[in-house]
Amino acid sequence: MKKQEQAAIEAVAKHFGGTWERSEDPSQTFVSIAGRRIAVAVTTVKQRIAHRADLAKPRLRFDRVVRELIARLQAALRTSVPDGTTVIFTMTAPIRLPSKTAEALEDKIRVCLARRSSRVHCEEAIHGNQIQIRLVKSSSRRISKVVGLVHNPDSDPDMLIHITQSLLQHIAAAAAGHTRGRSAKERWLVTIIEDAVARVETYRQVYAQLSIPTDFTKILMVFAGGRLETLTGAGDASWLRSEGALAVRRATGSPWVG
Questions:
Q1: Given CA atoms 57, 73, 135, 111 in this order, what sign does their dihedral have?
Q2: What does the alpha-carbon distance between residue 219 and residue 257 come to, in Å, rounded to a whole number?
Q3: Nearest to 189 by CA among 168, 166, 217
Q4: What pLDDT is recorded for position 48?
Q5: DSSP characters for 41-92?
Q6: Average pLDDT over residues 216-227
Q7: Is 200 a residue whose pLDDT tops 70?
Q8: CA trace torsion 49, 52, 53, 58 (10° rounding)
Q9: What is the pLDDT of residues 11-69, one digit of tens each?
Q10: What confidence tens digit (pLDDT) does each residue in 100-154 have?
Q11: What does the mean pLDDT of the chain come to?
């Protein structure tokens, strides 16, 4: 186990007042908390692009217009996006012409899908809103096919796309590759966030839209200095009261994982 991974598990054990142990299988790690033995997987989300100093940390918007636009595009494109593909789009707020903007964006996404390329990225302005569209591979047909990220104009859309791709790639891979511990009824995922580029709520809102199928009962984020936050998990519902997270659930119909 790498030092960074070991430090992250130690931070989790300390936070919950428990201990951690390695098993004879090097791919298995466990934490014991209040008599519960929990199998733990670790993944690392790395930053691969530089943060622009003139842009604020990304913050998503989820007002009624945004929710309706995302829901409309998801419904319209549900059968058009191939299995194994996720369309990520970013858009600046406010959306002044929602119907026309949604129609034009749907047409643009269909053009991107028609290219049949494994990686498509395009940028343009639609009715005064700056748009980015990226097609990425996904590992399951249950993962959301359309993810909409509407943000303040001073936010960095590249960072939002990066966050979405990173969570999709690393959490889906961890869910597929981690073997259940025989003596553990619970499975947690510890996600190390290197060089955090957004607020905790942004990671939660993005993850909620992705709807990655997992059987992890809890997914935790470990930031620099060992700071621990919950991405999702049973018994950790305090953040669900935030307007943005609840808006995602209403707009997408996605269940919370855990």
A1: negative
A2: 9
A3: 217
A4: 67
A5: EEEEE---SPPPTTSBPP-B---HHHHHHHHHHHHHHTTTSPTTEEEEEEEE
A6: 94
A7: yes
A8: -90
A9: 999 999 999 987 666 567 999 999 899 999 999 998 666 666 667 778 899 999 999 99
A10: 999 999 999 999 999 876 568 899 999 999 999 999 999 888 899 999 999 999 9
A11: 85
Pair of tokens at residue 144: 């959301």
CATH 3.40.1350.120 domain range(s) in the chain = 3-49+163-239
| CATH hierarchy code of domain 3-49+163-239 | 3.40.1350.120
Residue bearing tokens 């991405």: 231
What angle (nearest 5°) sits at the alpha carbon of residue 60, between those of residues 58 and 66? 150
Q: Packing angle between helix 243-252 and helix 64-77, nearest 10 degrees?
A: 30
Distances (CA, A) of 140 to 35, 76, 82, 212, 223: 34, 20, 11, 8, 28
The C-alpha atoms of residue 192 and residue 210 are separated, in whole angstroms, by 18
